[in-house]
Amino acid sequence: MTGIVRRLRRRPPKYSAAGLVWRGMRGEHWPRIWRDTELRRSYDAVVVGGGVHGLATAYYLARNHGITDVAVLDKAYLGSGASGRNTAIVRANYLTPEGVAFYDRSLQLYNSMALDLNINVMMSERGHLTLAHNDSSLRTMNWRAEVNKLQGVNSSVIGPDEIKKIAPALDTSDHPRYPILGALYHPPGGIVRHDAVVWGYARAADHMGVEMHQKTEVLDILCEGGDGPDGKGPGGKVVGVRTNRGDISTPVVVNCTAGWAGLISAMAGVRLPITTHPLQAAVTEPVKVFLPTVVVSGSLHVYISQTDRGELVFGAAVDAVATYSIRGSLEFTEELAGHVLELMPGISRMRLLRQWSGLCDMTPDYSPVMGFTPVDGFLVDVGWGTYGFKAAPVSGEQMAEAVATGRTPELIAPFALSRFDTGELVGEKGAAAVGH
Amino acid sequence: MLLVPCPHCGPRNSSDLRYGGESHPRPDPATATPQQWRGYLYLRDNPADWLRENWYCRSGCRRWFTVERNTATNEFRNPPMPGDKRGGKA
Prior knowledge:
The structure holds two protein chains of two kinds.
Chain A: H1 2-10, H2 17-26, E1 45-48, H3 52-65, E2 70-73, E3 89-90, H4 97-111, H5 113-117, E4 128-132, H6 135-150, E5 156-158, H7 160-166, E6 182-186, E7 190-191, H8 194-207, E8 211-213, E9 218-224, E10 237-243, E11 246-249, E12 253-255, H9 261-267, E13 275-284, E14 294-297, E15 302-306, E16 312-318, H10 330-343, E17 352-362, E18 369-372, E19 378-382, H11 388-405, H12 419-422
Chain B: E1 3-6, E2 10-13, E3 18-22, H1 34-42, E4 50-56, E5 64-70, E6 76-77
Antiparallel strand pairs in B: 1-2, 3-4, 4-5, 5-6
């Protein structure tokens, strides 16, 4: 009897309404959602980067493949980078067949995430409008809608009258400088609470034995047998990781960082086709709910959604100059406000609460770089540009499969690093949320 | 907003210029292997440190020039002088 009780106590506390009432009545605290363990000297696999991509990779390694001797390292705290800075939009209305198949799978995983991870990720499938302000973008919308329909993704092009019915706050008249001519309407698109996704993956992975190590910075990746100095570079293999808390030996390192992807890869002697650009975003004071969908305008470089608290979240294009500095700029705020008012003149009295930026790793074709590299045991899941959050579940699933089987899964084969050697780029710029 | 030291026009707002990215010597098309050529086209060092990069003074002297910038702090150093051989798109 006591054995059963002990085993029940060791099980992770399930989040439920009954549990909430029970703990509330007894004044009990919820236990910490992941353990704080000592950094060991050896792991089967090390994931660099404790954001949604890294945590999802660790979670699927444990859940789908039974590989639980995994450490996730982050130089700050979990979700401190782009995972906590993005605008939380998910969608699958991409332009290339490869992109659509990939993001559609991601959307499916987001839809079942609350049940899978037993955490409320506040998935809100509210629909996604991509506005067209000129004939050429209307043409791209039609193209995207047809590619999407062919692959079973719900997208269609609608006119200004229907847009006005869906989102009455938008100015669909012909008065603005860039009048709204139509939109790509994508009902399965929506927003998810990004922090909950980070915590959910961390909690689920922790229960299966994965270790999360915060404030653990990777200083070097130890290799042998490669062409370059210290055995790094093509032809070599990974033997370990040097961190600010000591060396770890491991045969597999997965680079799941954003912003610092190039620097981490350089530690293994792998050069990437990536430049780092900041992306600025802002949020307004909360008001009553009036914007039922996500609204995106490529020509005006802005995407807008209203959170459940009522704040409007604005995102923009990446800054043109490559830099690791995440200081905001006044010109961004001015430009953003002008563009938003062009779409919704009615909110001119609203005030911005806050402005922030995060780092985006941009690739030449706006598609990610995933899978194996010329260094054995060094895998990358990088170059996500502005799409990282919406792709996290499927990336984790596929990267875990690549680590476990040693083969590149079909879904991510088009995104291999070797495409830059062979010239088979996957041009996804046409489906970027905003012009870059 | 960055203040970019143009060799001809002096300090200018970065919105007056076009950012040209990292400056690397162009391989000779006659002798370069496809891999070298694609490396030149696509691969980047992307350091969080001093970087030699190209700028085009779009609304000023309309010339390309090369300058060093620290990508972590956005400081500039070693701007070229007018007529400097380092100027121009490498």
